[in-house]
Write a structure and sequence with these properties.
By secondary structure, the protein is mainly alpha-helical. The protein has 3 domains: 44 residues; 57 residues, no CATH class; 72 residues, Helix Hairpins. Strands 1-2 form a two-stranded antiparallel sheet.
């Protein structure tokens, strides 16, 4: 069986059952089995974007026609300030720009595993609203705090079972980035 990581919803459910005197180990194995079986039956993800498609999306985002115009664009220079040298001959550069400024790459949607919350790899993407499963147009300050506290309980380094400092710090950065709209 391929390694599978249980998402926070499953972990929360198992944790709540542990409070009711059901051993988590009894529930973990069937959960892994169900997820593995589900993943095997999923259709193969769409093929990754070609570099040309990545470039077009980034050109559209910065309202330019080609790489030369992109390099000269003031908006692009400001947006990438502090990112260091960008090698435009590499696919990885275009993918990184797409992730940061356009959207989630189709091949990276609904990810699972270490650092993935709500299907998003938090180390590749800074998408707080999606990580917290909130709508930015309707979320209240309390909604944001509750979502943050829910994730904090799982990933706080003091949690001996599921705690992880790197994930917790990333979640905290995302929380701080969106809670400021209420201050």
């Amino acid at each position: 069986m391929a390694p599978v990581v249980l998402n926070h919803k499953v972990q929360d459910d198992i944790t709540s059952l542990r409070i009711k005197s059901i051993d988590a180990k009894v529930l973990n194995e069937p959960s892994y089995f169900v997820i593995h079986k589900y993943k095997k039956n999923l259709p193969k993800s769409s093929s990754p974007f070609k570099v040309v498609e990545l470039k077009k999306s980034i050109y559209h985002r910065f309202q330019v026609k080609n790489t030369q115009e992109l390099k000269k664009s003031g908006a692009f220079k400001m947006a990438t300030d502090g990112m260091g040298y960008l090698d435009f001959s590499l696919r990885s550069t275009w993918e990184m720009l797409y992730r940061k400024f356009v959207n989630i790459l189709p091949s990276e949607e609904n990810q699972q595993g270490y650092g993935c919350i709500n299907g998003i790899d938090i180390f590749l993407y800074f998408k707080p609203w999606q990580i917290f499963a909130l709508n930015p147009k309707t979320a209240t300050q309390d909604d944001i705090k509750n979502a943050y506290y829910r994730l904090s309980k799982i990933y706080h380094p003091d949690n001996k079972v599921t705690g992880d400092r790197a994930i917790f710090e990333r979640v905290k950065d995302m929380y701080n980035s969106i809670i400021v709209i209420f201050t």
